[in-house]
């Protein structure tokens, strides 16, 4: 029996995944979670074989959850609507061993879970090629600053939130804008999100 924890912030999607996967004789859903912190807690409590998680969730993204669990026994499968090379590359760097798009047939997800549990890495080939062709130029700190800027926070609040000097925040934003080849923080956030880097 392959024991699963499912993490998805949309209740209807989470319920559908749980029901569909529970129909398989060799899959058991031992817990579900609606945000990143709950997913981490469920994995620590239930020690599942596989965590199936969305990318975008409140509290912590699926990629942040993957990074926190990296090196542990639980294998990770990302199920997302985002076919963005930046997400895939970051997922691979965080130790994710399966990446499935939500518009794929459920049989593909079931097959991915079984193969990942068996020790394989399962990633859509077209996405894998795109991930290696487009490297993410931003550092984690630039990403943190740009994410808060995209939420509309002024530099002073970004600085307070991240425990940085306001001048340091300006420098990170300026560097991100330059790397992305755009004119301002709004364009930088849009480009970074479109490419899956934010």
Could you please describe the fold and organization of this structure?
There is one protein chain. This protein is α/β, with parallel strands linked by helices. The protein is built from ten helices and six strands; from the N terminus they run E-H-E-H-E-H-E-H-E-H-E-H-H-H-H-H. Strands 2-1-3-4-5-6 form a six-stranded parallel β-sheet, sandwiched between helices. Strand 1 (2-7), helix 1 and strand 2 form a beta-alpha-beta unit. The longest helix is centred in the last third of the chain and has 15 residues, at 166-180. The protein is elongated and about 55 Å long. The N and C termini lie far apart (36 Å).
The spatial strand order of the largest sheet comes to 2-1-3-4-5-6
Biggest sheet overview? 6 strands, parallel
Q: What is the count of β-strands?
A: 6
Order of helices and strands: EHEHEHEHEHEHHHHH
Q: Shape, please?
A: elongated
Oligomeric description of these chains:
single chain
Instruction: Provide the helix percentage.
Output: 40-55%
Structural class: alpha/beta
- The fraction of residues assigned to DSSP E strands is 5-15%
């Amino acid at each position: 029996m392959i024991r699963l924890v499912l993490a998805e912030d949309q209740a209807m999607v989470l319920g559908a995944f749980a029901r569909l996967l529970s129909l398989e004789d060799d899959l058991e859903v031992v817990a579900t979670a609606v945000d990143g912190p709950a997913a981490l807690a469920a994995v620590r409590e239930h020690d599942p074989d596989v965590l199936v998680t969305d990318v975008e969730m409140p509290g912590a993204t699926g990629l942040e959850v993957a990074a926190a669990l990296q090196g542990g026994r639980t294998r990770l499968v990302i199920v997302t609507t985002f076919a963005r090379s930046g997400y895939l590359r970051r997922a691979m760097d965080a130790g994710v061993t399966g990446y499935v798009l939500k518009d794929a047939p459920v049989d593909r997800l079931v097959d991915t879970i079984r193969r990942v549990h068996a020790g394989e890495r399962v990633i859509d080939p077209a996405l894998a090629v795109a991930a290696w062709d487009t490297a993410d130029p931003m550092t984690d700190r630039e990403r943190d600053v740009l994410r808060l800027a995209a939420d509309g926070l002024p530099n002073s609040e970004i600085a307070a939130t991240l425990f940085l000097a306001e001048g340091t925040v300006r420098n990170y934003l300026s560097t991100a804008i330059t790397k992305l080849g755009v004119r301002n923080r709004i364009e930088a956030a849009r480009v970074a999100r479109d490419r899956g880097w934010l």
